Input
Amino acid sequence: MPEFRKDPAVYRWVIIATERAKRPIRPDASDTAQCPFCAGNENMTPPEILVLRDKSDPSSFPNWTVRVVPNKYPALVPEGSATQITDENYEVHSGIGAHEVIIESPYHVTDMALLEETQFEAILRAYRHRIMELRTDRRFRYILIYKNQGVEAGATLEHVHSQLIAMPMVPKLVLEEINAAKNYYEANRRCVFCDAIRKETDGGERFVIENARYLVMCPFAPRFPYETWILPKKHSSFFEHNTQQDDDDLAVILRETLIRLNRSLSGPAFNYLIHSSPLERGENNDYHWHMEIIPKLIQVGGFEWGSGSYINPVTPEQSARSLRAALT
Amino acid sequence: MPEFRKDPAVYRWVIIATERAKRPIRPDASDTAQCPFCAGNENMTPPEILVLRDKSDPSSFPNWTVRVVPNKYPALVPEGSATQITDENYEVHSGIGAHEVIIESPYHVTDMALLEETQFEAILRAYRHRIMELRTDRRFRYILIYKNQGVEAGATLEHVHSQLIAMPMVPKLVLEEINAAKNYYEANRRCVFCDAIRKETDGGERFVIENARYLVMCPFAPRFPYETWILPKKHSSFFEHNTQQDDDDLAVILRETLIRLNRSLSGPAFNYLIHSSPLERGENNDYHWHMEIIPKLIQVGGFEWGSGSYINPVTPEQSARSLRAALT
Output
């Protein structure tokens, strides 16, 4: 059973999950007969939790557009209670949670940017459905959706997919972001993310693109070159409160952002993640959900692991300029 | 000129250093005639700040054992004052600091574990000398020594070297560690690191090796597989307060630890870093300097970037067992 352990010095929980050591290091990518995410190989994954189908022709092959399955090598497991075990100073918490895989296409596509807009819509719908179901489980306090595309970004399978982890605690970085946003709101009576949106809209130097409901920008103090954020223009604390129309607009702009990153950077490995409010909070004035996209261009080294600070050789103004020009 | 930028949401300074974009991506490693760190190529680096020589024969070639030079592509620069510039909500601080390279051998050795014990002693002496000099500059509040060995660990040059960054602020992670250690001390009137040492000495399951003055152990809640710490047994807040005899003992145990990591893991890329007290504090009861060694075995992905939490597939008890057995 996996476990959470708290560092006795730094306030940071790590997940010790020895099951994950059994993951294949790097399975033969070219042999799609062996790809557990391809249509026809559904029996190679654990039974599915959710399947979305294209209603126009239910008898067609493949007969699904998006599947969600439990991660075969989970970092957290759903069984058991969230009992805390404390060995003197050493805090341990049983590794309760959910770890799911969202298979984003029935075909062996390896770059999300190549998917159709309708497929992006289906993926976002799958994210939302899974969050809505998991948030009814009162043991969970936070749900993180994330994607690793490319070996350098941590992917072990190349077939397009993302992942979801539900956990019994709010993770450190989210807590820090929430606390900082709360403090900002208390001081200014404005949301710090809304302020950034206002600042970048209409000729802001970190502005990338926008549509009716979303703004894409490079953040002011990015950890990484070409780090790019997507924010809803209308203040909202929870990704899963999106309407169908919100998702459709997000699908369009996420796809275009990934295409622009591909053009600017020749198809980089990347991560993305969705930062949304902790489950127990309601809609609030201070926290604004958003998506962070992080191309994997530089190696993180001793300075970063030792300081928690980052050296970024590219300004967000340069990144934004390059992304704005990418499709012209 | 580089700059520090503070994220308006999370409390985290990043260093935006566009000079570093000019670094060679991966110079031809095998051509030692082109290696700026090899003896004979001294003119390929900026003028040296410190050079250690083997006194027994000053006329020999090479005529040095360790050289310290400014980083040619610095993340921070020594000129200028530490003026803070604030653009509305966006805090910027000029990128004042020092960024130095410690060249750890005159020969083209690529694995630190292959160096002699006397060479390790010289390297530690160089670290200490540089810190002692830089700490007289009142603009600096923290000095971090770190090493990146191997491309996967962030090294761009393969010749053995480490780096030093002096900066005008205490970095986030060090601040967190210090605050947590202070809280622990206030609650327990004992140092949290001393407690860990006591727990692991004499058959502790995360114990690796020890000598008269140092203990090597895997920490209770490691971020990474085979993460290994070296701690002085006698409580001390500053690495640079080490005596010559302390350094000699550290040289022996650091070398043996790296050899054991090599045996257990077939010569992994790795980082190490020294966590010492901020410069403005004196010796104190709560903070205990130590060295953290992090082999680069797994890719960090969207979960880690989004949560600040880590999934580690290897328990520290497994890592310690493997390291204990590595030379038997």
User: Anything to note?
Assistant: The domain at 187-325 of chain B is CATH 3.30.428.10 (HIT family, subunit A). The mean pLDDT of chain B is 92. DSSP finds six helices and 15 strands in chain B. Chain B has two domains: 3-167, 187-325.
